[in-house]
Amino acid sequence: MERTSAATASTVTMPLVCLTRVRKSFPLPDGAPLVAVNDVSLAIAAGTAIALTGPSGSGKSTLLHLIGAIERSDGGTIEVGGQEVTGLSGRGLAAYRRRVGFVFQRFHLLPTLTALDNVIAPLIPFRTDFDKVARAHELLATVGLADRAAALPSRLSGGQQQRVAIARALINQPALLLADEPTGNLDSQTGTAIVDLLLRLRDEQGTTVIMATHDTAIAARCDRTVQLRDGCLTS
């Protein structure tokens, strides 16, 4: 299902993400394979917001993990920005993962670090050509938390923690943001605000957003909906 938006209208024809016959299975306790992603081919244009929908167990999270190179596919190819990521290993794999932003349903903030330090955390082992602290402050301002930089996660609401997680995902200025049920632990009003933020990143920064969601109202706000069932594309 496709929708017309300013983002899609201004997008070049070359897809940012291109999957070709991607497959992934996991072994069950009895040794039989559980097919999580089954022969999926998909092209996603740069600067668009895509909703991955489908019932639990349909393969949404696995597909995100494959695109983000958290999991390795069993077959097929995945290209992001013209780079094939399915065969990456070692330093190449680590470098690619740093170029992709991840936002998860469970915020995964480090409880003993402030909001600011949680945003900086992915960059601690690396040298950068920008000021990490200044960039983190800028991102917290972008997500509406400029005044909460010194707060520990325990002093933040669920929506605020998710905003910190989004800021952390953006610290490396990724062109691609993967969000796995980012509103699943939030009330509807806070969830709407988080989706507003993700779509604003698409509109203002050209970030490509791929978001797994059960919420049909959220999916309807994206540029395109991709439906999965039993690991297969149904739309």
Automatic annotation (TrEMBL):
<dbReference type="Pfam" id="PF00005">
    <property type="entry name" value="ABC_tran"/>
</dbReference>
<dbReference type="GO" id="GO:0005524">
    <property type="term" value="F:ATP binding"/>
</dbReference>
<dbReference type="InterPro" id="IPR015854">
    <property type="entry name" value="ABC_transpr_LolD-like"/>
</dbReference>
<protein>
    <submittedName>
        <fullName>ABC transport system ATP-binding protein</fullName>
    </submittedName>
</protein>
<dbReference type="InterPro" id="IPR027417">
    <property type="entry name" value="P-loop_NTPase"/>
</dbReference>
<dbReference type="InterPro" id="IPR003593">
    <property type="entry name" value="AAA+_ATPase"/>
</dbReference>
<feature type="domain" description="ABC transporter">
    <location>
        <begin position="17"/>
        <end position="235"/>
    </location>
</feature>
<dbReference type="InterPro" id="IPR017871">
    <property type="entry name" value="ABC_transporter-like_CS"/>
</dbReference>
<keyword id="KW-0813">Transport</keyword>
<dbReference type="InterPro" id="IPR017911">
    <property type="entry name" value="MacB-like_ATP-bd"/>
</dbReference>
<keyword id="KW-0547">Nucleotide-binding</keyword>
<dbReference type="InterPro" id="IPR003439">
    <property type="entry name" value="ABC_transporter-like_ATP-bd"/>
</dbReference>
<keyword id="KW-0067">ATP-binding</keyword>
